[in-house]
Amino acid sequence: KQEVTQIPAALSVPEGENLVLNCSFTDSAIYNLQWFRQDPGKGLTSLLLIQSSQREQTSGRLNASLDKSSGRSTLYIAASQPGDSATYLCAVLQTGANNLFFGTGTRLTVIP
Amino acid sequence: DVKVTQSSRYLVKRTGEKVFLECVQDMDHENMFWYRQDPGLGLRLIYFSYDVKMKEKGDIPEGYSVSREKKERFSLILESASTNQTSMYLCASSPGGSLYEQYFGPGTRLTVT
C-alpha cells in the first residue's frame, strides 16, 4: 500500500527566507502528485498538481518538483511571508485508483 | 472557480444518533469523495463515488454509508454515531479520469458526545 511521508512535521523560519518542504512516497506507480495548503480548522486549497510525466510546476513564489523514480517531491517557497504560515500536505494519486494518499503534513510558521 | 460546499461547519451530536453530512459541488464533476482527518493520522478516505448511484469503499468505511442520488450531491451517513467518529470531515470532487485535481470543501468539524 502506498505510504506518503512528510518531514519535518513542523518548521519555523524568519520572514524572507527561501524554504523547501519534502514529500516522499513508497510506490512510484502514480498518476500525479498534488500539494495542498490547509489553514487551521479549514479545508484544503490546491496549490500545485504535477502529472507523472512532468518534472516540475510553478505558481508564483511556489515551485514543486517531482522525481518519480526516487519517490520524492519538494515544494519550494521563495521569499516566505507570514501569510504562508499553514500546514502543507502532499498527496499522490495511485495508478489504477481514484483516491489520493496523503502525507500527514508539514506545519509551517513564518516569523515576522 | 470550482465550489464545493458542505452543509455545516460545526456539528455536535449524541452517541447513537443518525448523522447526515451533505456535500454539494457546482462543476459537474463525476467523482466525489469523503475523507476524515485526525491529528497524527492525516486524511483517510471513507468512501468515494465515480457516478450517480455508484460508490466504492475507501480505507475506513466501517460505521459509515453514503448516498449519491444526484451528480452534484454526495451524502455521508453515520448510522449510529459513536465518540470515535469525532473528527474533521472533508468532502472533495474531481472531474472524471485520473489526471485531474481534487477540490475540497471547507470541512465539517463533528463532535459526538
Overview of this protein structure:
- The complex is a heterodimer of chains A (112) and B (113).
- With 112 residues, chain A is mainly β.
- In chain A, 0% of the residues lie in helices and 60% in strands.
- Chain A contains no helices and eleven strands.
- Chain A has strands at residues 4-7, 10-14, 19-25, 30-38, 44-51, 56-59, 62-67, 72-77, 86-94, 100-102, 106-111.
- In chain A, the strands form two sheets. In chain A, strands 2, 4, 5, 9, 10 and 11 form a six-stranded mixed beta sheet that branches. A five-stranded antiparallel beta sheet of chain A has the order 1-3-8-7-6, with no helix packed on it.
- The N and C termini of chain A lie far apart (41 Å).
- In chain B, the strands form two sheets. In chain B, strands 2, 4, 5, 6, 9, 10 and 11 form a seven-stranded mixed beta sheet that branches. Chain B has a four-stranded antiparallel beta sheet with strand order 1-3-8-7, with no helix packed on it.
- Chain B is globular and about 40 Å long.
- The relative contact order of chain B is 0.33.
- The model of chain B has no long low-confidence stretch (mean pLDDT 92).
- Chains A and B meet through strand 4, strand 5 and strand 9 of A and strand 5, strand 9 and strand 10 of B.
Strands, helices and their partners?
The complex is a heterodimer of chains A (112) and B (113).
Chain A: E1 4-7, E2 10-14, E3 19-25, E4 30-38, E5 44-51, E6 56-59, E7 62-67, E8 72-77, E9 86-94, E10 100-102, E11 106-111
Parallel strand pairs in A: 2-11
Antiparallel strand pairs in A: 1-3, 3-8, 4-5, 4-9, 6-7, 7-8, 9-10, 9-11
Chain B: E1 4-6, E2 10-13, E3 19-25, E4 31-38, E5 42-51, E6 54-57, E7 64-70, E8 73-78, E9 87-94, E10 103-104, E11 108-112
Parallel strand pairs in B: 2-11
Antiparallel strand pairs in B: 1-3, 3-8, 4-5, 4-9, 5-6, 7-8, 9-10, 9-11
Task: For the structure shown, list the relevant keywords.
heterodimer, A: mainly beta, five-stranded antiparallel β-sheet, 60% strand, globular, B: mainly beta, four-stranded antiparallel β-sheet, 57% strand
